[in-house]
Write a structure and sequence with these properties.
214 residues; alpha/beta; eight-stranded parallel barrel; 8 strands; 40% helix
Length: 214
């Protein structure tokens, strides 16, 4: 099971979270990664935790002011990236181009989608993983695996029908070890979460709870 903690633009200490994630991962044997803001990628990667970008742009070098280049995040220590998060939507052609840029930089990729139909479309673009995240549950207290398990099962089935090699992650509302275990039982091979760790008073304790039932 893979746990990816997206720090978004929350006012947390990325090094505190990264260090806690590294320590809990080493102690539990569970794969945990942290996805900080682009400006913090190098500092987070220096802690030794697996580090992902929150987004990469669908272009390479050139006159693209404001871009987040896949090559740049890789050079700064990222080994993976989210693409098309609900809060950073892209057009289909841009998702494809961002994937190609990420692959060229040897970044692992996860394309986010709202529902099983979108998951199937995303899987057809050949990412390493897809994540199903109903927007209405993002940032809430109820996990999609609990609120609507059929969406998770449908996403797993949709991805499998296109390419069984594409992993399926479950996002939106994940915050406890029970949520992670429920996602795993529904066929997901990973979870995405943000506020459950980034807003926690004790990120280490929150992470320990997340791995407690695995």
């Amino acid at each position: 099971m893979f746990i990816l903690v997206n720090l978004k633009a929350y006012p947390c200490d990325p090094i505190e979270v990264a260090t806690a994630a590294r320590d809990v991962s080493e102690a539990s044997g569970v794969r945990i990664a942290v996805s900080p803001q682009a400006a913090d990628i190098s500092r987070v990667a220096d802690t030794g935790v697996e580090t992902w970008a929150q987004h990469v742009s669908p272009n390479s070098y050139g006159s693209h002011t404001g871009s987040t280049l896949a090559a740049a995040v890789a050079d700064n220590g990222a080994t993976g990236t989210l693409i098309n998060h609900s809060e950073k939507r892209l057009k289909l052609a841009d998702i494809d181009n961002a994937l190609r840029a990420a692959e060229h930089a040897d970044l692992e990729t996860c394309v986010c989608a709202n529902n099983p139909t979108q998951v199937g479309a995303a899987a057809a673009l050949d990412p390493d993983a897809v994540a199903v995240e109903p927007p209405e549950l993002i940032g809430g207290d109820v996990s999609v695996a609990t609120a609507d398990p059929e969406i998770v099962e449908g996403a797993v089935g949709a991805a499998d029908a296109i390419d069984p090699q594409v992993d399926v992650y479950c996002g939106a509302g994940v915050s406890t070890g029970s949520d992670v275990a429920a996602a795993q039982e529904l066929g997901a091979s990973g979870v995405l979460l943000a506020s459950g760790v980034a807003k926690a008073e004790d990120p280490a304790a929150a992470l320990e709870d997340l791995v407690s039932e695995l």
